[in-house]
Amino acid sequence: MSDQEKKTGRERGEEWWSTEIIEMRPGMIRLRGYDIRDLIGRISFPATIWLMLRGELPSDEQAELLGIALGAAVDHGPQAPSIAIARMAATCGVGINSAMASAINVLGDVHGGAGEQALAFFGDIAAAMDGGRSLEEAVRARLEKFFAEEKGYVPGLGHRFHPIDPRAPRLLELVREFAARGVIDGRFAAIADAVEAEVARLKGKKIPLNIDGATAVIYGELGFPPPLTRGLFVLSRSVGILAHAWEQSQQPDRNKGPLPREWLWAYKGQPKRSLD
User: Fold this and answer.
1) 140-167 per-position pLDDT tens digit
2) Is the domain of 240 the same as that of 207?
3) What is the rounded CA–CA span in Å between residue 265 and residue 179?
4) Domain of 214, in residue numbers
5) What's this model's pTM, rounded to 2 decimal places?
6) Is residue 163 assigned to a domain?
């Protein structure tokens, strides 16, 4: 009989959802080994996020920089698909949780995933530098590959509304401040600057870093892997989603669709025809 077969039903049940994240039993909760009573009131929400995801507590400055990135991307207005969906869902009579879930479910590759893509792109360049290439060589090679094999926009650059995304320069300014203090090394900021400069050279015009690229820089500097970047964006944008869902729920609109009632869609199908 194998060791697995010798285990009791309770032992198998306890192993079924084994986790290193939380230990809990009546009267006791520990997160990553820390008693919840010791954490409450002593560490910030960004520090709690870090602890849950990474297993160890960050420094105060690391937690501060993480909070800065999370705070920068909370909202971009009702024209953003996720926010519009949250508001429409709220008018359909569902609760806050359903309105938020409806919105969060559309944070995919096109709307919400650009930060992950940007950090993966910057990470490819960092890996090439680790392999011995200079920053300029690594950036040039990655962009050549992108334009030869991939489609769309260079991740982390450009914005369909803002000629210059007002959030990005401020975030990069803060990244440089934290690098000067030794909290981070500034490597991903240098990569982002070099990508922006090389794209400007190739295109003949500057396409500035956007919020996704700027937050990707911060998450990269703090050591988060690209897939977690999307999850962190979901956490951030959930704040705006909640605010809009709540605001809409307090208004009298019912079944509020994407257009005012007096505006209808363009029909481009068959003209009127008779069944006979």
Assistant:
1) 999 999 999 987 789 999 888 888 889 9
2) yes
3) 51
4) 73-257
5) 0.92
6) yes
